[in-house]
Design a protein that fits this description.
This protein is α/β, with parallel strands linked by helices and 448 residues long. The chain has helices at residues 3-13, 53-56, 65-75, 89-102, 113-130, 151-155, 160-163, 190-208, 233-245, 297-302, 322-337, 340-359, 385-395, 417-435, and strands at residues 32-36, 39-42, 47-50, 106-110, 138-142, 174-176, 212-217, 221-222, 228-229, 248-252, 276-279, 291-295, 364-370, 373-378, 398-399, 406-409. The structure holds pyridoxal-5'-phosphate. Residues 112-114, 117, 146-148, 218, 223-224, 252, 254-255, 280, 448 line the site of pyridoxal-5'-phosphate.
């Protein structure tokens, strides 16, 4: 069957995420038939370079042989068993390894990122309740934060496009200033912005700590805010303030975990251990949905007792799915055996050199980079920029999804230099085309 036949059927039967479906009257869906490495192929044989790791999940490349093999082997033994009352080898091994890597020895599983956020928020509140402080039942999140779109996660998310409609359902978090380094005045550094943001956080904690269970943040990069990057001093400062005011620190590493910022976990760059770490997305290399919240002995012990309601009575049917855990183990094996994070540091230097001319484009502002993420803002009057740039890049065989007027690349770690060069060239051409008034699309902000 051709692209056209599949997309007609999809538009009729599938309600696609984060989409005004009517938009697909003018912007066709892209039906993907297969994928390998950094490339997606549609049913007509056209190829697209996946510069966003398929919504930031595909860590090592599509069809990665070692992950496929691990899933296949597990498939022949055990596909799934409920994790309440039962356990199995992949979930035990994964929990042990993640515990050793994060310094947080108790792993609780969910499926998608948002379910990890829900788990961390509920666990933090419940910890304080079990510890005789039920009044600690609110949260602080950062301005422009994104932690997922279930009702609890949306309350700590500061993206009005997604949350405003549901405001009557939400109990919004208090918002601390973002340490987004782009806010630096000409003579200021990213560390100065971090310091100012910490002062704002301290004010909030001074006033409200008695009613606050946790601060939740995305370490080093606020992804959905448009790859807002910030100085690691903010992490160490936030950790110190949380300790001082007796508030948990939840590190949402759903987007940045597993090497994305240049270290296995972004928190390492701030020299901190959070009270909770949320992991998902790249955890299975983009093969299967899995999320995990890891926490401390102290938190775990507060739930341990004879009273059943003192325990954490939260569950998802696919908690700790054996196939997903085996994929995650294969990801950890590959990262370790092939020393991928160290190799990425050199790879990223070469990629930065290839992308450097883009920073000189007259419309490009705040060209920035950390680990395996590159981003820049485009100074454009076009309200339809994100849509039009997406279309212009797709026509050139590249998948990117600008966030507002921010273009970013978050490639799978298998990306090669010639592919980054293709991306740079296509971006340059697309910017030129849009500046000349081409590739218009419906005005529509696109996320991630
Ligand atoms: C930092 C962060 N937290 C949570 C989520 C939600 O993850 P999911 O879409 O898997 O629910 C995302 C998704 O982009 C994210 O970037």
């Amino acid at each position: 069957m051709s692209n056209q036949q599949w997309l007609t059927r999809s538009a009729q039967a599938v309600w696609h995420p984060c989409t005004q479906m009517k938009r697909h009257e003018s912007l066709p869906l892209v039906p993907i038939a297969s994928a390998e490495g950094a490339w997606l192929t549609d049913f007509d044989g056209k190829r697209y370079l996946d510069a966003v790791s398929s919504w930031w999940v595909n860590l090592l490349g599509h069809g990665h042989p070692r992950i496929k093999q691990a899933i296949n082997q597990q498939l022949n033994r055990l596909e799934h068993v409920m994790l309440a009352g039962f356990t199995h080898q992949p979930v035990i091994e994964l929990s042990e390894r993640l515990g050793a890597l994060t310094g947080l020895g108790h792993a609780f599983y969910g499926s998608d990122g948002a379910s990890a956020t829900e788990i961390a928020l509920k666990m933090s509140f419940h910890y304080w309740k079990n510890s005789g402080q039920p009044e600690k039942n609110r949260f602080i999140s950062l301005e422009n934060s994104y932690h997922g779109e279930t009702v609890g996660a949306l309350a700590v998310t500061d993206v009005p496009l997604f949350s405003a409609t549901y405001a009557p359902l939400l109990r919004p978090a208090l918002r601390a200033p973002t340490p987004d380094a782009r806010r630096a005045a000409p003579e200021e550094s990213a560390a100065d912005v971090a310091r100012q943001a910490l002062a704002g956080l301290q004010d909030l904690l001074q006033q409200h700590a008695h009613s606050i269970a946790a601060l939740i943040l995305e370490p080093l990069v606020q992804g959905a805010a448009g790859m807002a990057m910030y100085h690691p001093d903010y992490l160490s400062g936030a950790r110190a303030l949380c300790d001082r005011y007796q508030v948990h620190l939840i590190a949402d590493e759903i987007a940045v975990g597993f090497g994305r910022t240049g270290t296995l976990f972004a928190c390492e760059q701030g020299g901190i251990t959070p009270d909770f770490i949320c992991l998902s997305k790249g955890i299975t290399g983009g093969f299967l949905p899995l999320s995990c919240v890891l926490t401390t002995d102290q938190v775990y012990q507060a739930f341990y007792g004879d009273d059943v309601t003192q325990g954490f009575l939260h569950s998802h049917s696919y908690t700790g799915n054996a196939l997903a855990c085996s994929a995650a183990l294969a990801v950890l094996d590959t990262l370790e055996d092939e020393q991928i994070i160290a190799a990425n540091r050199e790879r990223a230097q070469r990629f930065s050199a290839i992308l450097a001319p883009l920073a000189q484009h007259p419309q490009v502002r705040h060209f920035r980079h950390i680990g395996m993420i590159w981003a820049f803002d485009v100074d454009t009057p076009r309200a339809d920029f994100s849509q039009s740039f997406f279309s212009a890049m797709l026509a050139r065989g590249c998948l990117v999804r600008p966030i507002g007027s921010t273009v970013y690349f978050m490639p799978p770690y298998c990306m090669q230099e010639h592919e980054i060069a293709l991306l740079a060239q296509a971006s340059f051409e697309a910017l030129q085309q849009l500046a000349q008034g081409g590739a218009s699309g419906a005005a529509q902000p696109a996320l991630a």
